[in-house]
Write a structure and sequence with these properties.
The chain has five helices and six strands, in the order αααββαββββα. The chain has 157 residues and is an alpha+beta fold. The protein has one domain: Thiol Ester Dehydrase, Chain A (Roll). It has a six-stranded antiparallel β-sheet. Strand 4 and strand 5 form a beta hairpin. The two termini are 17 Å apart. The N terminus is likely disordered. GO terms for molecular function: 1,4-dihydroxy-2-naphthoyl-CoA thioesterase activity. InterPro entries: HotDog_dom_sf, PAAI_dom, Thioestr_dom.
């Protein structure tokens, strides 16, 4: 089993960056993250400029009082942010999260949460992504900033 989005779709994305093969589809990107898929995360759009995904509220993902668990929100943010970072990598590179910070701003007791991830910095060593989490009424419920290490082929061997 692949241990990261990069391992699961590296061939397709590397080829896409060089123009050799088409970029992976949303289903391929999501399949690379079994935990996110298992929890019900969906990907709605994935481009280097913005990646969007969602997670529906369900009782199985809640903590006390029917509030969507912070870990579920962080999984959504991490998955959507990782795809955004991955789509900003140079050809042949992979990525791994080295830091992630989430601020929880509002409880979610129904509906869904919608994530939008955008790169704040795309460099040769790290990619920094900010992911906004909003409820069905477009209220900000959380914000995650994550740093992804850029792993070149020599780093991965």
């Amino acid at each position: 089993m692949p241990d990261s989005v990069s391992d699961a779709v590296s061939g397709a994305v590397s080829g896409a960056a060089s123009g050799a093969t088409p970029a992976p589809g949303l289903a391929d990107l999501l399949a690379a993250m079994p935990l996110a898929s298992h929890l019900g995360v969906t990907l709605d759009e994935a481009t280097p400029e913005a990646t969007r995904g969602s997670l529906a509220w369900s009782a199985e993902l809640c903590t006390v009082g029917g509030v969507l668990h912070g870990g579920a929100l962080m999984t959504l943010a991490d998955a959507v942010g990782a795809v955004c970072a991955y789509l900003n990598l140079p050809a042949g590179a992979g990525t791994s999260t080295v830091e992630s910070k989430t601020n929880f701003l509002r409880a979610v007791r129904s509906g869904g949460v919608h994530a939008t991830a955008r790169p704040l910095h795309v460099g040769g060593t790290v990619v920094v992504v900010q992911t906004d989490l909003r409820d069905d009424e477009s209220r900000l419920v959380g914000q995650t900033t994550q740093t992804q290490l850029v792993l070149t082929p020599k780093d991965r061997s």
